[in-house]
Amino acid sequence: MPPKIGVYLCHCYGEIGKILDLEKLSQQAGKWRGVAASIHYPALCSADGLEIIAEDVRQGRVDRVVVGACSPAVHRDTFLRLARQAGLNEHFLERCNLREQCTRAHRDQPALAMAKARNLLKMAVGRLSPAESFEPVSSSTSRSVLVVGGGIAGLTAAENLARAGVNVTLVEKSPFLGGKVARLHRYYPRFCSPRCGLEVLMARLLATGRVTVHTLTEVTGVRGTAGNFMVELLKQPRYVKDACTGCGACLEVCPVEVAPSAALPPGRQRAIEGPGLFPYPLNYAVNRVFCRGKSCSRCVEVCPAGAIDLDQEEDRLSIGVDAIILAAGWEPYDAGRINNYGYGRLPGVITSMDLEVLARPDGPTGGQLIRPHDKKPVRRVAFIQCAGSRDKQHLAYCSSVCCAATLKQIDYVRAVAPEAGIFVFYMDIRTPGNLEELYRRTREEHGAVFIRGNPYAVEWDPGAEELVVTADDTLSGSRVAVRAELVVLATGMVPCAVPAFERLEKDTTGFITGHLPCSPMEVRRAGIYVAGCAQEPMDVSTSVKSALAAAAECLATIQNQSVVVPPVVERHKCDRCGRCVEECPYGACSFDTGGYPAVNPLACRGCGICQGGCPLRCIYLPGFSSREMAGLIEAVDTGSMDEQPCVLAFLCANDAYPALDLAGTRGTSYGANILAVRVPCAGAVNAGWINDALLSGIDGVLVVGCRTTECHYGRGTSLAESRVNNLRETLQRMLVEPERVQVLTAGIEDGQSLVAAIKRFVKQLQELGPNPFKE
Amino acid sequence: MAAKLPAKLEEVGEVRLETDILIIGAGNAGCYAAIEAKRRRPDLRVTLMEKAHIDRSGCLASGMDAINTYIKKNETVENLVRWSRAQAGGLLREDLTITMAELLNQAIEEWEEWGLPIKKDENGEYLARGRWDIAIQGSEMKVILAEKVREYGCEVLNRVVATNYLLDGDRVIGAMGFGVRDGKFYIIKAGATIVATGGAAGLYKPYTNDGVDSHHQIWYCPFNVGTGYAMGIRAGAEMTTFEMRWCAVRTKDFNGPIDTISVGYKAPMINAKGEKILAKRYAHMGGDASPRFVRANAPMEEWLAGRGPCYVDTRHMTPEQVKTLKIDYLNERPSFVLFLAARGQDITREPIEVYGSDPYIVGGHTASGYWIDVKRATTLPGLFACGDVAGGVPNKFVGGCAAEGMLAARGAIEYLGSLADRGQVDESLVAAEKARVYAPAIRQVREGDGVIPREMEERLQRLMDEYAGGVHQFYRMNRERLEYALKHLAILKDQTRYLVAHDLHELMEAHEIIDRLDVAEVLVHHLLFREETRWPGWQNRVDFPERDDTRFDCFVNSRRNPQTGEIEVFTRPYEQIIPGDRYRP
Amino acid sequence: MPPKVNLQKCDGCRAESEALCVQICPGDLMALDENNGKAYCRSARDCWDCMSCVKACPNGAIETRLPYQLGYYPAKLIPLVGSNKISWTVVDIHGKVERFTFKNRND
To answer: What are the residue boundaries of the 4Fe-4S ferredoxin-type domain, all occurrences included (chain C) (predicted)?
Structure first.
């Protein structure tokens, strides 16, 4: 059945109709091959206008529709709704930009605008004739998610997903859930116990009945993509079975004392450890790093429940999940590496995390403010901010939470030692939002002394048995030396290493990021989401928010229909070379059992990078088959440009296309010889289209993408550049000026500079003369 | 990455498949056979075994600029038979030619529908380039065909070289071979088997041979080495008319086709003195319309008589014609345009020099090949043949090979329907073939010394060139020389046990030379037997320079006894269906 | 004669299962150099000049050269492959340039 295309031209209340002779255009279009109806109307987006199109479709007068009106970037929903209501497949509706990129941009050259409008309409018709229809792909209904990390972020994400009906597998590498937050004494801003919040969260999570928890477990391998991950897990032995009642008898007999950190003396902690104040799971765990093993076995003998089994072995299991939330958390920066502060060497030098332990009633000092190793009362405490942070020797970045954490800890000190002297060495105090109130209170009510200066050193005065912190006070310009029994290093946060995810894209600081402004929670491998401090340093409440965001994005992927129609593979043309599999930034493309590429609709983000690289042009997004693109390009009348070189510009739909729209809307005029084609990404442009354009007599081709670092799909612009460079070298050998094909970059607000660049390109083309392929 | 060669036979992996129809060779004929089989019987498993990659394998790798046999309006099947019969010196299988001709147009029209651009004249008819020829733009025609094969759901095994048939008695129940990439031994059992491996190049030394670079600057696809003939010969299939070799006038030094020029642009062949050779000396044979063997021989005769070099005279051509001519070549053998550029030659001022090619065995041009019936069944039950490997139908060319592929598929389907059982695989034969296939590899590991395939290939080509009527001998031969050739062929065949292969590619080359030797031996027997000169140019017996209709107005056939290796040569009578003078169109 | 591979442009088709020229060559003549991962022709003498590899190379990294024994340096013939047409540029030994563009597929 030959297509019956309807061409509908919109006056846009005169904005288009005053510049273009729509009557003439519509008469011309009516004579083109495949066009069954061609009309113009004052406003197609009006209810009446839409009804005209819908009625033609319903009556079978037309089965494909070209709307010659405003930019496809506007009124998208209006026309999609029309297609749905009229029963027209959305891929049979082609928008033709007669306003932003025609009448607005060329209002002072009506004759040329007319020629351009004719070209744009012909291109739309040329593309639509061989177009195919596609239905959106629905995802499977199986829903399961792996959450890596049992800290506050992991638990929050798990709880939210489980409540939404998702089956969650939660893995935690340590023996107990709760992560760092469970080890805090209090957390700001309310200074409540974190256990309280964790308990509520845990109760809700367990109530869903949809969670499987694996402690002492690490992920050792991840294969597959969204909707189809296979995850390998390695579970270390706990040596304590579920029969454990948590009575603590074992703790009493264990002979191995274990220090909580390099700076703290052993307290109640032993080689067999209990869950502490957040008892999930309840049963104890033997730490085999310290345990003397079966030669001792006192705990085994004393356990009334017979729960201890030192013969347990590690276990490997693999599970299939639809998505993964990575909430592996953070570790404090190793304070021992900051030599001049003497951590681990000088008594009384501790980190902020050590102070959290000391402050707790179950800590080694029972929560009293005494120096841990000699029980000496602490009369003066010095906090050193940015210990190893914002320092190229250590961590170049700011960990963002340490300032507020110190202010919080000053509160701990004040609560137990109203008279103690408190000194804070800092570079800048960073307390955004209402944390400023905490800062004020610390200064004004708690009387803490703030000294702006980074200490040179912390030294031990053996006579006074005190620590001496020396620094330049940069505000007074004088050197200060502060004596203290306790020095607290506010160390920064380092992301926990997760070897199985090592290949994920990271920022320069080693944190795993998504595309920060556009899809921050999803990493560059679709179906994996990052939450909490694995993403960047953040405080507890921000971690909770990030976990909620990750869960929301994850749900959207695994539950709903895919947002895009994934690319089609023409298997009979495909030679299974695998370039699409290799280049897909989302890992959405993999080999099926026949060795052909198969696109996972859940993972596909519609960037079209696969079609850009396909040597045989047999994988394509709807609307971009080689037939459609050849139809579009062949429709260009290169002779209608009034001696101007004919330019075909492939513009990225994210930035460059709207930028050019905006330029036109603002009345920035550019040549009517610029014919733009909207593409999802510069990386979606296949070199074959550029060849088609050159062979059709088009004088120059532009590919305009986002700036290399800003590409929404990561590598689109750089891939376009390398493909175009290859083509340019071939052109050079063919004695065709390589300057005829260029890649430009533009941000969404760069309309003016884009127009300027296009004008430079046109000038260059004028100097080069006509396309040598033109017969 | 290609697999390593096995050091021991036990290391060789095996791939065993069972299919309904196995097609050996995925060139033009094989692809049409596959498509026809699958569309007639979608329920059947149809498997193609291809030594290269289906997209560019066989003669159409670089494309084609014309279909040389298309029955236009006002022409008939009978006329085509008459014309083809005269072109072939009166000798062809009329029954086979008729059945082929009946399907010719369908094959070509389908190809167009699938994407092959065929030029049209002002009336929308196919653009004629001669009485039977139409002009196409076929640079991608093989890719288009391969896509269709996959679309129909045929199974394609690329890079698997066939080495021998799987036999149950004399019945063919599939084939064996090895993977050039995976190194595995393939045992493919099939209900029916279709051979479509093409003809044989590389039996003779090309004059363009310069050792380093230009050994394969020949006209026929050099990767068609006669494997299909060789497998049939070894299994005892009856072969026909090998002595009708295909030696053609080609562009000198490039060995490019000249029909494009002489037929397409009516450029006459001239000698060094500027005389129109065909008009002047061969008017009695039809002048410019003389049979192909005459046209092949004419410039060589001129050269011998001291009137060379010879040319096709392009000096009358307009620049527009030259442009179209070059586009024709770009569609068929693009590098000919490069050749002209490398000679800096303006053909409107300098004519194109021509010369004879090295001889080939090509059933699509002459009548050499398997002796088949109208269903394209060979004399071995279960084996069908089509395309260049099938005999009896000269001048079938691209369209005829496609048509014959369809006929072979129909024959195979009918045969499948008549089968009571699918036969038994004799494992001892499989083991023996496996040992034979990998012998050069294993010898390389164990002995390290021996004969590399290239040395043997060059020895064969020199021998055939000098003693069996190669181009350097102006295609001439006599009994004594042919007997000399046979003697040395026997030595070479014995020497194949010394072949060594260093990698899988060289293992393929080893089997290519083994296959060529078997084809060459049969060819020399045929040349010896026909004690006349029926097709001067293709077959010149200087000891029997005249045509002898009393003894040889018939087919010369042969069959190698699989047990003894003896080659029996005998005749089959000519059967005329279309009346008229067989020597005139 | 041999396809000449531009080592700067050839990327060995990266992680693909088989480089496209290796996959397509009807003579099994193209292979990847194990040392640098780039394509090369294993036997110049056996090339038929069919130019399948030249047309297949997604990077335009392969050029066919005529054997010097048959034609002189530095003639060039380079294709540009479109969706349904192809264009050939030929440069002869005197530097004369000719271009030929034609349809090679109906769709």
So the answer is: 1-35, 37-67
From A559, A577, A592, the end of a domain falls on A559
Residue at which a domain ends, from A86, A114, A134: A134
CB B333 within 8 A of CB C88: no
Say whether both A553 and A511 belong to one domain.
yes
- The catalytic residue among C48, C59, C87, C99 is C48
Which 2-61 residues of chain C touch chain B by CB within 8 A?
Answer: 2, 18, 23-28, 31-32, 34, 42, 44-52
CATH architecture of C1-65: 2-Layer Sandwich (3.30)
Residues of chain C in contact with residue B138, where contact means CB-CB under 8 angstroms, are 104
Q: Classify A271 in phi/psi space as left (phi over 0), alpha (psi -120 to 50) or beta.
A: alpha
pLDDT more than 90, % of chain A: 60
Q: Could you give the CA distance from residue B226 to residue B427 in angstroms, rounded to a whole number?
A: 26
Burial B464-478 (b: 16+ CB within 10 A, else e): bbbbbbbbebbbbbb
Distance CA A149, CA A90 (A): 42
A410 and A521 fall within a common domain:
no
Q: Tell whether A242 is covered by a domain.
A: yes
Q: What is the mean pLDDT of chain A?
A: 90
pTM of the model: 0.80
Q: pLDDT of A530-582, one tens digit each?
A: 999 999 999 999 999 999 999 998 888 887 655 567 899 999 899 888 889 98
Which of C56, C59, C99 has its CB closest to that of A773? Answer: C99
Cα separation, A625 vs A568, whole angstroms? 9
- In a domain, residue A34? The reply is yes
Q: Is residue C88 annotated as a catalytic residue, yes or no? A: no
The ranges assigned to domains in chain C are: 1-65, 66-106
C101 contact residues in A (CB cutoff 8 A):
695, 773, 775
- Domain count for chain A, please give it: 4
Do residues B215 and C27 make contact, with C-beta atoms less than 8 angstroms apart?
no
* Domain span at A55: 1-134
Which of the residues C77, C83, C85, C90 would you substitute to probe the A interface, choosing the one with the greatest number of A C-beta atoms within 10 Å?
Answer: C83
Record: contact A577-C13, CB cut-off 8 A? yes
Residues A345, A206 share a domain: no
Question: Would you tell me the crossing angle of helices A687-695 and A626-634 to the nearest 10 degrees?
Answer: 30
| Residue B137 in contact with partner chain C when CB distance is under 8 A | yes
Do the domain assignments include residue A601? no
For residue C39, give how far its alpha carbon lies from the nearest alpha carbon of chain B (Å): 12
pLDDT tier for residue A251 given thresholds of 50, 70 and 90: confident
CATH label of the domain that carries residue A34: 3.40.50
Report the CATH number at residue A225: 3.50.50.60
**DSSP track, A250-288:** HHHH---B--SBTTB---S-BSEE--TTS-SS-S-EE-T
Q: Which residues contact C16 (CB under 8 A, 6 or more apart)?
A: A577, A578, A579, A582
Computed over its alpha carbons, how large is the radius of gyration of chain B?
23
Q: Which residues pair with B18 in a beta bridge?
A: B189
A136: preceding bond cis by omega (within 30 degrees): no
Report ipTM (2 d.p.): 0.96
CATH of the domain at A274: 3.30.70.20
Q: Does B55 touch chain C (CB under 8 A)?
A: yes
A508/A464 same-domain check: no
Q: Which of C15, C23, C83 sits opposite A629 (nearest CB)?
A: C83
Which residues 71-90 of C are in CB contact (within 8 Å) with B? 71-73, 75-77, 79, 86, 88, 90
Residue A514 has pLDDT above 80, yes or no: no
